[in-house]
Amino acid sequence: MPRSAQINPPAETKPARRTSQRPTIRDVSRLAGVSRMTVSRVLSDPDMVLPATRERVLKAVADLGYVPDRAAGSLSSRRTGFIALMLPTLTNANFAAVAHGLTEALREAEYHLLIAYTDYDMAEEERQLRNLLARRPEAIVLTGAVHRRTATRMLLAADIPVIEIADLPSQPIEHAIGFSNYQVGRTAARYLIDRGFERIGAIAASPDGDVADHRGEERMRGFEDELRLSRRATDLVLRHGSAPVSFHHGAAAIRELLARDDRPQAVFAVSDLSAVGAVMECQRLGVRVPEDVSIMGFGDFEIGGEINPPLTTIHVDFRALGQRTGGMLLDLLSRNAEAGSGEPRIVDVGLRVVERASVKDG
Amino acid sequence: MPRSAQINPPAETKPARRTSQRPTIRDVSRLAGVSRMTVSRVLSDPDMVLPATRERVLKAVADLGYVPDRAAGSLSSRRTGFIALMLPTLTNANFAAVAHGLTEALREAEYHLLIAYTDYDMAEEERQLRNLLARRPEAIVLTGAVHRRTATRMLLAADIPVIEIADLPSQPIEHAIGFSNYQVGRTAARYLIDRGFERIGAIAASPDGDVADHRGEERMRGFEDELRLSRRATDLVLRHGSAPVSFHHGAAAIRELLARDDRPQAVFAVSDLSAVGAVMECQRLGVRVPEDVSIMGFGDFEIGGEINPPLTTIHVDFRALGQRTGGMLLDLLSRNAEAGSGEPRIVDVGLRVVERASVKDG
DNA sequence: ATGAAAGCGCTAACAT
DNA sequence: ATGTTAGCGCTTTCAT
After folding, report:
1. C-beta separation of B251 from B280 below 8 A
2. DSSP 8-state assignment for residue B207
3. A112 contacts in B (CB within 8 Å)?
4. What is the distance between the alpha carbons of residues A198 and B333, in angstroms, rounded to a whole number?
5. DSSP secondary structure string, A228-259?
6. How many CB atoms lie within 10 A of CB A16?
7. B18: nt with nearest C1' to CA
8. Beta strands B139-143; A346-348: pairing state
9. Across B56-65, average pLDDT
10. What was the pLDDT predicted at A337?
11. Is the CB of A310 under 7 A from strand D?
């Protein structure tokens, strides 16, 4: 191929006192005898380059073990390929499933998930949010409903698509995809009332300062509202310990409830984890489920279906939620390239009672 | 403050046709009437700047809602603040705990975890690895022991600290922190042999092409070796279904084992998940644990301690593993700034049998 | 089909 | 204590 016959060295010969030893696009271009742009094209849009040139470049890339630096690419192209995801915790099967589903949906589109989690702490949410935004994600996904004002402001200022998931907020920041935790509570109460129970209880964590499970509390609010509407007492709704709940929580809470004079006939647990813990504790106490007490959970965790008796629960498809979020994201990001980002989208994925054997008729 | 009296506009006045609306360091510098470097200093090393100047800059930052672009910063400083973490899956409580522990350890040092997972697929590991390296992490943590050759080569070429975790590889790439899965198997077998059992079985997933649970298979190898050393038969070691295992796996596998003429007296499950599933299935079948069959698991998942009878298992502290990895990382990255990175470090966090009620003496 | 110039938004290194 | 210069490693844009 013709190379310019100038006396001064061409650009790609420019020496550099580099700190790192990793090859750059310039090293590849020199080795292949092309300009940096040609290397860039081979890597991003191979058909734009003559096959012969392309092969030469590809060989140079392989020989050097060249891996492009996305930070540099992002800076130039203004596309980072990051999607930010903020979760309360990773050590919850349902949230982990969301992350899993999302990653899958985004994998082909070459987006990379940036995960942060808050440990149910709103101050931490704000800190994490700032860190995330510094990475210039092209969109942000977070568990919805309650944020601090400054957090909301930062979100708005970022000027990227925002999707709130899991909890359907009454005032979404922009897009939302999830279900109503309030509705979960009402549904659970309705279900137990319809089974004919009179003394109905619940177990949840107590709301506690900055570290709180707002989602769980919403479920309890719905639960109590529905009880009241049916003229049932709400004094068997127990707030015990602090979030996040787990097996022990349920065990301790059911013990407390069973010790009461007006022991409940049926109990709704804020999470399957608590519910399973409660069932296990009943086994140990010789209290039969559901004959002596019916127990119902939320979240449809795998373990719930495996215990004896299997747990009646309320199911939300978190993995599908993650995948749908991924779909919406892809759509948002592609049409963002064309026209205005369009209307906020609110999707209720709904919920359903999964009837198993831990609840009988009252 | 004195500004140069040149006719051409000084640098900070330079107009830019920017695509994005987000404020840059230049906007802040203009508003505060200082140079960009001063802004940079206020944000990274505030004490270096006069209090009065600092306040002015901070106000400008707040007024504009300025969030620095880390991609640009990384490019310039050659420090991305990323640590890469590659896991088989996020939907396993123990791996999630590793991620959790690691994040905690790194949080203060302002490192950001880049998580990828392979779904136990080695081809995917390679793809993910390339994506991760393109983000120029300062170190990489991965679940150890088995990698493809090209993956190992990429890791070496990246010239950053590599820590293999969970599984202690026989030939570590560099640093390693974990335990020996082979030893887990031997320990389990030894424990059951010492309890006096003769017919000892095990349940695991069958190794299956590219998608395989090498760690689980290692455990089985150790288990079988120990059985042989004690002249026990290994024909009750059952490979059933495919990884990753869960409750159903254990239920199905124990059914198969119990149906045999030479039904085992004791069974080691490759994971607590399988073990719990097995115990639950026994409950349903009316097979008493441990009277009719003893069951032992691995991983010490929370649920194992909650069921009836509580599960005897082998414990590895994954969260501590994550935290220790974080500590090693911090140390490696700081001393990397000083001298050579030093010797490879291999840490065995060990394991211990947690004796509960699901195993009795044979 | 390929290349040259310019610049993305920062910070290291060297002034002053 | 603060400013200036010169890039970091890419991609955009505009030539050719």
Report:
1. yes
2. P
3. 114, 131, 135
4. 62
5. HHTT---TTEEE-S-SSP-HHHHHHHHHHHHT
6. 8
7. C8
8. unpaired
9. 95
10. 53
11. no
In this prediction, residue A288 has a pLDDT band, given cuts at 50, 70 and 90, of very high
| Chain C bases closer than 7 angstroms to a protein Cβ | 1-13
Q: Is the pLDDT of residue B1 over 50?
A: no
Q: Where is pLDDT greater, at A108 or A7?
A: A108
Q: Within an 8 Å CB–CB cutoff, is residue B357 touching chain A?
A: no
Match 């940096």 to its residue by tokens.
A36
For A123, other C-beta atoms within 10 Å of its C-beta total: 12
- Near-strand C residues (CB closer than 7 A): A 1, 4, 10-12, 34-38, 41, 48-50, 52-54, 72, 75-76, 78; B 16, 18-20, 22, 24-26, 36-37, 39-40, 43-44, 66, 68-69, 72-73, 75-77, 79
d(CA B345, CA B175): 5
* Domains (range + CATH), chain A: 25-65 (no CATH), 78-180+318-336+343-351 (3.40.50.2300), 181-316 (3.40.50.2300)
Selection from B11, B69, B39 nearest residue A75 by Cα: B69
Q: CB under 8 Å to A42, separation ≥6 — which residues?
A: A49, A53, A54, A57, A58, A61
In contact, B168 and B178? CB cutoff 8 Å: yes
The spacing between the Cα labelled CA in A12 and the C1' in C5, in angstroms, equals 14
Task: Please name which of B96, B131, B142, B75 lies closest in space to residue A111, comparing C-alpha atoms.
Answer: B131
Between CA A46 and CA A31 the distance in angstroms is: 18
B100 Cβ nearer than 7 Å to chain D strand = no
Q: Is the CB of A146 under 7 A from strand D?
A: no
Strand D contact with A20 (CB < 7 A): yes
Q: Does A43 touch chain B (CB under 8 A)?
A: no
Nucleic strand D within 7 A of Cβ A24: yes
Distance from CA of B84 to the nearest CA of A (A): 11
Per residue in A134-178, pLDDT (tens digit) is 999 999 999 877 788 888 989 988 999 999 999 898 889 999 999
Rounded Cα distance, A282 and A280, in Å: 5
Rounded distance, CA B180 to CA B35, Å? Answer: 56
Question: A303 and B276: CB-CB below 8 Å?
Answer: yes
Tell me phi and psi for residue A52, to 5 degrees: -60, -45
Chain A nearest-CA residue for B155:
A65
Question: What's the CA gap between A181 and B24, in Å, rounded?
Answer: 40
Pairing label, strands A352-354, A312-315 = antiparallel
What is the distance in angstroms measured between the alpha-carbon CA of B273 and the sugar C1' of C7? 55
CB contact under 8 A, A70 and B22: no
Place of tokens 């399988």: B274
Spatial distance between the Cα atoms of A180 and A183, rounded to a whole number of angstroms: 5
pLDDT score of B14: 47
**Residues written for chain B:** 362
Residue of chain B whose Cα is closest to the Cα of A138: B20
Residues of chain B found within 8 Å of residue A133, distances taken between Cβ atoms: 67
Within an 8 Å CB–CB cutoff, is residue A16 touching chain B?
no
| Digit-coded pLDDT (tens) for A314-357 | 999 887 898 899 999 999 998 755 545 578 999 999 999 999 99
Sheet with B237-239, side-by-side order of all strands: B237-239, B200-204, B266-269, B294-298, B312-315, B352-354
For the CA of A11 and the C1' of C5, the distance in angstroms is 11
Residue type, A298: F
Residue B212, Cα to own-chain centre: how many angstroms? 17
- Which residue type occupies B242? S
> d(Cα B39, Cα B27) in Å, to the nearest integer?
10
SS3 readout for A189-221: HHHHHHCCCCCEEEEECCCCCCECCHHHHHHHH
| Residues paired with residue B352 on neighbouring β-strands, in sequence order | B315
What single-letter DSSP state applies at residue B286? T
